[in-house]
Amino acid sequence: MTATGMMVSTGKFNNNLSWRLPLFVQIIPAAFNVIFVFLCPESPRWLYTIGKVDEARDILAKLHSNTGDPYSPLIDLEMEEIKEKIVLGGSDKHFWDFRPLFRTAEDRYRAWMVVLIGSFGQLSGNGLITYFLPVLLKNAGIVSQNRQLTLNFVNSVTSFIGALSGSASVDHIGRRKLLLISTGLCVVTLAIVTGLLSDNGNGNQVRANAGISFIYLFMVIFSFGWTPMQSLYGAEVLSYEARAKGLAFLNVVAQASSCINTFGIPVALEKLGWKGRSPTDSIHSMLANGYTYSLPDFPDLGCL
C-alpha cells in the first residue's frame, strides 16, 4: 500500500526513480525484519524435540511466568502438553516426509481442504485484478497514467480495509460461513463487471465507471473473506504433526495456482480480450463457491 501510494507521486518523474524509489522504500521494513529476527526467542517446542529441555523451560518461564520460575506449576503444565503432542521420532522431524498429510482418510480430507484454500485463494478472480488492474482500467477508457496509479492506490487502501474488517469478524461470523458469503458475492460482482466492461464498455464512460466501482467492490469482498482465511484455515484444520508440512504444501499449491495468473491471463487478455477475462474468473469463483460447501467450520473438525 505504501509503494502504490508513493507511485502516485513518483509516476510523474521522467527517470528511473519513478519505479526505483518505491522499491527502495520497501527495503526498509525488510531490513527491520532482518535485524529484529535475531531478537526472537527460539521455539520451545523445537528445543524440546532436539533435547534442549532446560532451554525450552527457560523461554517458557520468560514469556509466560510472572515469577520467571522455570519449574512453576504453569511451566510444568505447558511442558507436559508439549510432551504429549510431540513424538520425538515422528515423521514431522524429517523435511522430506509428507506422509502425515495422506496417511489416513481424515488426513487426506484435511489435505484436500488445504488444496482448496490454496488454489481458490489465487483463482477466484483476484489474480486478474491484482496483477492486471492497469489493463482493466485502460480497457475502461482510463488511459492517464496518473489516474491509473491513483486508482491502483485506492484499490490497495480499500482492500486493506476489507482484510482488516474480515480478520476482526471471522470469529463472529464463522470460517465456512464467511467463505461462502464472500465467494458467492464475488461471483455476482464478477458477473456484473463482465457485463459492464464487455466490449470495453462501448465507449460509455458511465458504464465504465460503474465497472471500475464493482472491481473495487469485488476486491473488498475478496479481501474480507479470503485474505484472512488463506493463512488461518489451513493452520486450524491440520493436525499438529502435519501442520508445518501442510502449510508448506499450502504455499506450494498457492504458488502453482498463481502461475496461471502470471502466465495464463496475459495470453487470454491478448487473444480473447474481455471475452476471456471476467467470464473465466466468474467460473473459477463459482467452482470455489461450490467446493466451499465441502469445507467444515473449524469447531466441527475436533482438531484443537
UniProtKB/TrEMBL annotation:
GO cellular component: membrane
Broad class of where this protein is predominantly found: membrane
One function term, GO molecular function aspect: carbohydrate:proton symporter activity
Keywords: Membrane, Transmembrane, Transmembrane helix
Residue stretches spanning the membrane: 21-39, 111-137, 149-166, 178-197, 209-227, 247-269
InterPro entries per record: MFS_dom, MFS_sugar_transport-like, MFS_Sugar_Transporters, MFS_trans_sf, Sugar_transporter_CS
Membrane topology designation: Multi-pass membrane protein
UniProt domain Major facilitator superfamily (MFS) profile: residue ranges: 1-304
UniProt-listed Gene3D superfamilies: MFS general substrate transporter like domains
Highest taxon in the source lineage: Eukaryota
Subcellular location: Membrane
Family as reported in the entry's similarity comment: Belongs to the major facilitator superfamily. Sugar transporter (TC 2.A.1.1) family.
Record protein name field: Major facilitator superfamily (MFS) profile domain-containing protein
